[in-house]
Design a protein that fits this description.
2 copies of one chain form a homodimer.
Chain A (H helix, E strand, L loop, with lengths): L7 H8 L7 H13 L9 H13 L9 E7 L15 H12 L3 H9 L2 E6 L17 H12 L8 E7 L3 H13 L3 H4 L8 H17 L7 H8 L2 H15 L4 E3 L2 H13 L7 E3 L6 H9 L16 H19 L3 H4 L6
Parallel strand pairs in A: 1-2, 1-3, 3-4, 4-5
Helix pairs in contact in A: 2-3, 3-14, 5-14, 6-11, 7-9, 7-10, 7-12, 10-12, 11-12, 12-13
Chain lengths: 339, 339
């Protein structure tokens, strides 16, 4: 991996040229919804989703023929502190499981007919332990961001972004704490299932890492470099490239949303093309979603990562587009309007 | 329609012989979930759904190859009181729209690959106005229940139940008030979009209907006959037949859930094979779901009826079954368990 190169300054430059919403396409979607054979607003968020897709695909009608799920996998030096219920070797084992088709996200992609891409990011070279040092050098971070950008190709109608990485809810918690404040307890949760002493260790690692890198607090991209990880930087890159390429984004759980939050901290408009798919059972996700001013589509108590919730949400988007484009209008169907 | 015949006493007899859950199949599902390549419980309600399907299909693994959506349509004498934003003629017009493929539920069935059946129930013979008289005779009600039972055929893996009927949230509100108590205001909502004077009229009709039939309050099936409607009786029949035939049920919105609640009022175990698909934006639905001790799968602010929410939920069930049956186990995949 990491063939692509960019500098963090180039990434900052992109962020200063974010494409605006296509209000014409969005308005066309809103007008069509009013004509369809249902009481106004009766499809609720499905109507909002159709309008959102049109707005950020920049076309009406919106399409959902080519959805992609992208899962970025990376390893974390901080995992050596025993912050996860699983050993770090599981990251690579799960990547093999993705490739072999045995993971949850494989089955979910089959159900919603999404193209699955798994991006393995230097798994034998974990980031540095964020309690002691910056996770990545500037160059490493920029390359990881650029690598994530490569997941966005022309012709995609939506991308569901997720991650896999033993230790990465620790990184996500540290990043969230540094970006949004509060306490380490606010942002530290059970992750893969830690409890007791392990949860205490995780919380202490989050607090120590943020204290170690507090001088960087004014620069979200520098926080990503210092507290994030390869896969989190890649998610941020994919979110940014999707905005540039007019591909709407479904964000998965806590780690993926924390990665995207880096862009929000730079410019609150930077995630307007993103919908948070679900509220993870990882408790900090709800707090993070609120900080982003978002409302998740559903809450099924999922806490798996690997883009599982975001992939499930592709099915909801398909439903939204199918209703929007396939329903008859009142005049087509000869159905009376309100009396 | 209404070829089938049964008496309300025969229906009562069925209710005294409800099949029990298949705990062996459910346990087999729970045990398999523990072996799959994810932290325990990380798929949240998807795991619960796999177990619920196994329990009520009476087999492990559960299957979801043959989902059906059944929509029952009926007309209501109380509609003449101006309790809906739409004229009663819209019920038949919407049935034509279902047949022509132009309604929301048609598109949703296409997305989740469900077989759609629409049951038109004597649309030219609305029920009596419940403010003045019982909606149906004993024979009419029993026939409508029996007609609903016919929607359940061998080989179905799940059935999503919904309704269409101008005026039927008024009937559902009256039924809910009579079954569960409270005030007419508690159970009366905007339906297709009524407000102001029309909402006041609707609320008054609900209160008057329940007062008119208060002597029947001890007998839920008699309340269904007096306050319900053809399509609501059919939903109750379909729920009951599904239980007898080991077909798990997805309940749609307020009207469909109110119809099912009649069975709950007779025996609280009668809906154990049912999941409420979504929380409707019709405010009384949330209250009703709580009374049933259920937790809906999602809330997308939908308020359309016609089994739209329940059909969307079929996609979630498919995801649950795909993960349950398709994922690798830790030992298959060579993934390490917790450290």
């Amino acid at each position: 991996m990491l063939e692509a190169a960019a500098s963090l300054d180039e990434i900052r430059a992109l962020l200063s040229h974010l494409p605006d919403p296509d209000l014409e396409a969005g308005t066309a979607a809103a007008l069509r919804e009013r004509e369809l054979t249902k009481p106004a607003g009766a499809l609720g968020r499905l109507e909002e989703l159709a309008q959102w897709l049109a707005t950020w695909q920049g076309r009406h009608p919106p399409r959902l023929d080519h959805p992609r799920t992208a899962v970025f996998a990376g390893n974390h030096g901080v995992a050596a502190r025993g912050v996860s219920a699983y050993p770090a070797a599981v990251t690579a084992q799960m990547v093999e499981n993705f490739v072999a088709g045995g993971a949850a996200v494989n089955q979910l992609c089959r159900v919603v007919d999404a193209d699955l891409r798994v991006y393995e990011m230097n798994l034998d070279q974990p980031t540095a332990d964020i309690v002691d040092a910056p996770a990545m050098s500037e160059e490493e971070c920029a390359r990881a961001v650029a690598y994530g950008m490569m997941a966005i190709e022309p012709g995609l109608d939506v991308v569901a972004l997720g991650e896999m990485g033993i230790g990465n809810t620790t990184a996500a918690a540290a990043l969230s704490l540094a970006l949004f404040g509060g306490t380490a307890e606010d942002w530290t949760g059970r992750g893969t299932g830690v409890a007791g002493d392990a949860l205490d260790r995780k919380c202490a690692a989050v607090a120590a890492a943020v204290a170690r890198h507090r001088d960087a607090a004014a620069d979200p991209l520098d926080l990503l470099r210092r507290l994030g990880g390869h896969e989190l930087a890649a998610v941020a890159g994919a979110v940014l490239a999707a905005r540039m390429g007019r591909v709407p984004v479904l964000l998965d759980g806590f780690a993926a949303t924390a990665a995207a939050a880096v862009l929000f901290a730079i410019d609150p408009r930077a995630l307007d093309h993103c919908v948070v798919a679900h509220v993870s059972a990882e408790q900090a996700h709800r707090r993070l979603i609120e900080r982003l001013g978002k409302r998740a589509l559903f809450n099924l108590d999922m806490r798996l990562g690997e883009a599982s919730g975001a992939t499930l949400a592709i099915g909801i988007l398909k439903a939204a587009v199918a209703c929007h484009t396939g329903m008859a209008t009142f005049s087509d169907a000869g159905v009376s309007g309100p009396a």
